[in-house]
Each structure stands twice: as C-alpha cells, then as structure tokens.
Amino acid sequence: MTDKNTDKRTALLSATLDLVSNHGFHNAPMAKIAKLADVSAGTIYNYFSNKQDLVDSLYLHIKNEFTNAAFQGYDEEKPVKEGIKLIWFNMIEYKMANPKQANFLSQCEDSQIVSASVREQALEHLQPLLNLWERGQGKGVIRDVSPYLLYAYMVYPLSFFVAVKKRDEFHLTSEMQQHSFEMAWSAITIK
Amino acid sequence: MTDKNTDKRTALLSATLDLVSNHGFHNAPMAKIAKLADVSAGTIYNYFSNKQDLVDSLYLHIKNEFTNAAFQGYDEEKPVKEGIKLIWFNMIEYKMANPKQANFLSQCEDSQIVSASVREQALEHLQPLLNLWERGQGKGVIRDVSPYLLYAYMVYPLSFFVAVKKRDEFHLTSEMQQHSFEMAWSAITIK
Amino acid sequence: MTDKNTDKRTALLSATLDLVSNHGFHNAPMAKIAKLADVSAGTIYNYFSNKQDLVDSLYLHIKNEFTNAAFQGYDEEKPVKEGIKLIWFNMIEYKMANPKQANFLSQCEDSQIVSASVREQALEHLQPLLNLWERGQGKGVIRDVSPYLLYAYMVYPLSFFVAVKKRDEFHLTSEMQQHSFEMAWSAITIK
Amino acid sequence: MTDKNTDKRTALLSATLDLVSNHGFHNAPMAKIAKLADVSAGTIYNYFSNKQDLVDSLYLHIKNEFTNAAFQGYDEEKPVKEGIKLIWFNMIEYKMANPKQANFLSQCEDSQIVSASVREQALEHLQPLLNLWERGQGKGVIRDVSPYLLYAYMVYPLSFFVAVKKRDEFHLTSEMQQHSFEMAWSAITIK
DNA sequence: CATGAATGAGAATTCATTCAT
DNA sequence: CATGAATGAATTCTCATTCAT
C-alpha cells in the first residue's frame, strides 16, 4: 500500500517533470499531468495540496537528487582540486544523463515558478561545496572572492550547456568537458 | 501622431517587461499589461497580433538594446583583450543598470516563452563578439574551443549575478566586477 | 451516471437548438447555451470539444432523427407512389411537429455554420429515397432527371413552409398538405 | 462628389456581399468589410447607421435587383404561361449569373440576419407575380391554392440549385433548366 | 466627409480545484 | 484513497462602434 502511494506520488512528479521540461511551465496543466501519470485529476490533491506544492516538491526532489549526485564519492579529506574536479564532473554527468531534470532546474532558477522559500531551502544542500571552496581559499588555491562568484563560474555555466543541448544546437563531447573543466578551474583559482 | 503610436507601443512593451520580470511570465495576463500601460485591453491588438508576438517583440527589442550597449565604443581595430574587456564591462553595466531587462532575458533563455525562430534571429547580433574570439584564437590568446564554451564562461555567468541580485541576496560591487572579469578572462584565455 | 451524462449532453443540444432556431446562430453564445441548459460554461467542453463540434453534433443528431421519421413504416416492397407519399407525409409531419428542428436544418443548409464534412455525412441517410426514385424512374413513373431536381421539388419546398410558419405568416392546414403533396407529385412524375 | 458617395456606398455593399456569401454572416466583421471596400472602418457609419442597417440595406438592394431582373420584359398583357415562363427563366438566369447575390438571399431567408420588418418590405416587390398567379387562377390554369404554395414550388426550389452549385456538387445545365421549369409548371398548374 | 486608433463589452476556451459517488 | 464530472473565475482575443484629428 505504501508502495502504491509512493508510486503515484512519483508518477505525478515524473509527469510534471516531463511536461514542464518539454513544453514549459505554461502548457503543463494539472489535467495533462494527471493523464500522463495515469491518475485521476482529483487524486493529485491527495498527494499535493495544490499546483504550487507539486512544483515545489518536484524542485526539492530534483535538487536533492542533483546534489546527491554531485557529492557522490566526495569526502572532506580529499585534496581541493581533486574534490572540485570530482564534484564538477559529477554535476556535468548528472546533467547530461538527466537532461529533463537539468532543464527543469534551469527554468526554475530564473523564473518565479518555484516559491522563494523553497528555493532558499535548496541552497543548504550546497554547503559541502561552500566548505570546500573555503578550504581552498585557506590554502591559497581558490580565489578569495564571494562564493557567488565561484558559483557563477564553476556551476552556473553547466546550465548553459543543457539549454543549448536541448535545442540540438550543440553537444558537449567528453573532450569539451575536459576543456570546460579547465576553464572553470582557471576561473576560480589563483594562477 | 507617430509619437503617440510609439508611446503606446513602448508603454505596452514596458508594462510587459515590468510584469514578466517581477512576477513571471505566468501572472502577466494581457489585462494586467493593458492596465499597467494605461491602455484598453483591445488596444494591445492594434500593436501586436497576439501575446506571443508581444513577448517576441519585447525580447527582440531588449536583445537589440543589450547588444548595442555591449558593443558601445567597440571597433575591430582594438587589441583583443581591450575589446573583450570593453564588451564585458559594457554587458555587466547594462545588466546592472537595467535589471528588469536583464532578468527578462534570463527568463527567456531557459524557457519556452520566446519563439524558437525569434531566439535564433537574436543570435546574429552577437557576430562581432564571435569575430573577436576568432581573432583572439588566431593570435593564440583565446582558447581554441567552441564559441559555446567561450560564451558559457564569458557571458553566461552575468545572468547569474542578475538573478541573485534580484532576490536581494547579493550585490556585485565594482571591485567584484573586476574580480569577475579576471575570472572570465582566465577562463577563456590560454594561460 | 450514464443517465446524467446523457442528460447533460441532451440538455446542451436542446439548448443550442432553442437558441439557434429562435435567435439565429449569432446570438447563441456558449454562455447562453450553458445557462439555458442549466450547466456551467466550462461543462460544455466536457461533452463537446468546441462550438463547431457542438453545432455539428446537433446537426447530425437532428438530421438523423429527421431521416428516421421520414422512413418510418417504409419498406422497399411498397409501390412507388405509396412509398413517396408515405415519406413525404412523414417529412412534413416531422417538420410541423418539430418546428425548431426544422428551422435549424433550414438554417444549416444555406449557411456555413455546419462543417462541410458533416453535411456530406448526413447525405448518406437519404439513400433509401434515392433508391426509391430510381425504382420509380425504372418504371417510367418518375421523371428521368437528376436526383437534385427531384429533391428540389419534392423535399426542398418543405423548408419553405417551416420558414414562413415560423414568422406566423402562414399555417399549412392538412388540406393544404394534400394540395402540396399533389403539387410535389405532379412536379416529379411524368404526366 | 455625389458619385464618390455612391461609389463608397456601393463598394461597401459589394464588400459585404462578398464576405457574407463566401464566408457566412459570422466571419464578416466590419473591419474586413471596410478593408475590402478600401475604406476606413469609421466611414461605414457615414453611410449606414450600424451593421444591421448595412445588412438590411444590402438585402433590400439585392432583392430589388433580383425582382427587377425577374420582371424584365414582362407586361400584364402576356398570356399566363408565357408570363410565368418569362419570370421563371429571368429568375434562374439572375441566380446563375449572380451566385453571390443568390446565395446571400438564401442565407437571409432562413436565418435572423435580416430584420423582420425589412424582409416584409421586400415581399411587396413580388406583387406582379401574385397578380399573375391570380389571373391564372381566374382562367382555371393555375391551381387554386395559397400563393405560399405556389411560391414554394415555383420560386423556392431555385434557391436549392444555388446552394448545391455553390458547393460544386452540381451544375444546372440549360437542358436541366428546361426540365426544371416543366416540373415547376406541372406543380403549379391544373393538369 | 474620411480616417483609424481606441474602446470595452463580450466571445470562446482553459484550468486549478472541489466533491459526490 | 480514487475518480472524473462539474465548476466558474480567469484568460486570450474579437469586434461593433466612437471620436479626435
């Protein structure tokens, strides 16, 4: 029974992800979500209190998944560069392997579709990276600038790759990933 | 008479910009746009054929404004670094001075609210920067990578500053702008 | 449950019929239809995909009802004159007993309010009459002319009676019906 | 100057006719009419007090044109059959030569697009035919039935030919016209 | 008279949400 | 819990008509 519940919840989140990332937040009406999840429209409200809650929940879910992936295999003992490299490649790998999720996250960053409060919550997940940067700054490796700047040059560009990839303009080969990491690393480190 | 026409058109574009950048594409119904522009709802359709056309027009208008600002004072004789620096600071200056416009552009990049065809049109405006990169690559200054990568590390991060600034989390001081440019420059150049 | 569904659908068709036949196709907005059917405006779209579909469905429904009435008691063994007489009186009886339906059909014949494809569909129902005419022609009773001509003089005039009756200018008594049939019969037969 | 006035009025009537007969009464907005007449939207209201007046005027104009054509060459001295034949062929000729007008009239007969009062006015034009029928009845040639019946079998069927012709289903050849007249004549006369 | 931008009521349609079954 | 018909407010867009120029 619990499984079934979980199944429906998951199916709804998944359907929402599909629709929003493929057709935009508008063009993702509850009726379509329900149909795609193979569930009745009314059932949604047994799992989510309203559409905002559904979207917020999806955002949190994916953000969590993403951060878990990002820190996969990472521990705080690792040398700074190795840690950064691991995290960076984890991130790009997740985004390439999960384009819908990546696209959804991008859409959420710049728009108002996710509640402000929820977006703030999600920031906390990033703490290990903040710590790592701080450690790197202590060691004189990472530039002594606001984490916002570090984020802007290490993490944020990844969204761009997803956006253009989605429009089939561009595909990031693994060689390009290497270059891209070098560029990120050059940006955030002291030469 | 021409003035009046231009006025209303401009007022409508401006109202759309206000609403979309402050409250998102949804929550920007035509009725609100009309009211904010101090115009009757039906009047919108004297200037734009439908909502998509209104949004597309706004996008093109702003993109054009942005690119004009970006290339202000630039000529192709300039040394590579000087040119890049000029363009980069032009861009950040425009975005800081015009947060609504900047925010609107960000929203458009990752979502489906602007027509694909219009977004493609807008790309052409970037040509001078592409040429400059190529020149820099020819001189062995700029990394020999896809312009997508160069864009991702030189231009794209600017959007992030706007996004967080909007949420009052962060303000990019002029010192930070200096650092930020150095980071961008490090990313795209051969050390 | 099925009853309720059918009820609402029927109520909507009936309301549409009322409004269109009494006030014309324009002056039959969806809101009025809904109100007359004692149903919410949005409910219409649970039963019909749009206004065109609603009108088309109504047309098919009535045309079907009309043709059923027309061929009531008819079988292909009947002598030609008897068959024609039966059908003709069935038709006039239906139209007199159902002036709204008759009027609606008239409105549809000459205007663009019903989809071309649907109007074509409806033609098939007339097949038995075409067969009967052919049989009559084979026997040298019915004029050897295009069925369009036969239709024009046997069936089409009935619409006129409905049109004028509706404006209270004229009522077709049963004696007149007799005369009218004789006129139709004279028109389509070889003297 | 008077010519110009007349020109614009005529152009507007003509544009209305075009649009209504080709695309139906709905799909004939004032703006389109104005554009097709090469006139400003506001100008319409210098010639007609509103849309209803425009349509009514068009109806009267065409009905008048039609009746003039119908009685072309007719005088009350003519023998009954000759008179009827002349009028009948005048009518069919007009309708075949002026399909838009014919179609417009058909649309008006069965719908509510023309004011009731105006439709009544138009009936008066038919007086000479009523007189002719009466004369024929006096002579024992024409059936002694209501003029409504005579109209239904002599005049009304012509509308049908126009309706089907418009849909390209059928074309009335001159041989068919002969047959059709014979059918009409058989219908309305005493054998 | 002519223009055509402006109006705003009203049209068709959508959609998040509710609730009886 | 699940259903899905029903709701009605909200949305986009149309259109007859007006009026300042």
UniProtKB/TrEMBL annotation, chains A, B, C, D:
UniProt keyword NAD present: no
InterPro entries attached to this UniProt entry: BscR_C, Homeodomain-like_sf, HTH-type_TetR-like_transc_reg, HTH_TetR
SUPFAM superfamilies cross-referenced by the UniProt entry: Homeodomain-like
Entry GO MF terms: DNA-binding transcription factor activity; transcription cis-regulatory region binding
Keywords in alphabetical order: DNA-binding
UniProt feature coiled coil, ranges: none
PROSITE patterns on file: HTH_TETR_2
Portion annotated as DNA-binding: 29-48
Record-annotated HTH tetR-type domain positions: 6-66
Pfam families: TetR_C_10, TetR_N
This protein's record includes keyword DNA-binding: yes
Protein name (Swiss-Prot/TrEMBL): TetR/AcrR family transcriptional regulator
Organism of provenance: Fodinibius halophilus
Organism classification: Bacteria, Pseudomonadati, Balneolota, Balneolia, Balneolales
